[in-house]
Amino acid sequence: MNHWETKREAVEKLMQDATVVRLALCDGEQPYVVPVNFGVGEGKLYFHSGAKGTKVDILSRNPRVAFEMDADVTVVKHPEACHWSMKYRSLVGTGIVRLLTDPAEKKAGLDRLMAHHAPGETFPYDEKMMMVTHVYEIAVENLHYKEAKGS
Asked: By its UniProt entry, which PANTHER family does this protein fall under (predicted)?
């Protein structure tokens, strides 16, 4: 099920409130999880990285990812250990990553990332940095939203 459509308001609010998305990549039989800054637009997630590194190497071999983000995570304490609980909002999903190579697409992806972290502001991009920065787009396939209010 894709909760982006059925729970749009809650999903978009969580994405607005989250500061990090954790990407789960698969390097053959070995899992690899990495937190990244992100942006959102048109049903897709955007993130960036340097041009070299483990994440770049794995994505070049396998573009399928899982991801997780959360907000408002709080432990709800109780005098009895078995009655402790959690309060949170979370998203988990899967998608396919695409490296953006067109300069206009790269800039648009970075604009989405910057808009997430600095809404309403605009920024110039250093052309030399753009040359060595990878910008990725995740086409979301599945998305599951969960909220727990604690008890």
From this structure: 5-NITROIMIDAZOLE ANTIBIOTICS RESISTANCE PROTEIN, NIMA-FAMILY-RELATED PROTEIN-RELATED, FLAVIN-NUCLEOTIDE-BINDING PROTEIN
CB atoms within 10 A of CB 54: 12
> What's this model's pTM, rounded to 2 decimal places?
0.89
User: Which band of pLDDT confidence, cut at 50, 70 and 90, is reported for residue 148?
Assistant: confident
CB-based contact 69:23 (threshold 8 Å): no
Q: What is the pLDDT of residue 59?
A: 97
Q: Among 30, 33, 44, which residue's Cα sits nearest to residue 97?
A: 44
**Number of structural domains in the chain:** 1
Torsion of the alpha carbons at 124, 129, 134 and 138, rounded to the nearest 10: -10
The boundaries of the domain holding residue 134 are: 3-149
Q: Which of 71, 67, 123 is nearest to 96 (CA)?
A: 67
Q: Is pLDDT of 104 > 70?
A: yes
What CA–CA distance (Å, rounded) separates 24 from 22?
Answer: 7
Sign of the CA dihedral with 6 first, then 151, 22, and 64 last: negative
Dist. CA 130–CA 100, nearest whole Å: 11
The CATH number assigned to the domain holding 81 equals 2.30.110.10
pLDDT given for residue 76 in this prediction:
87
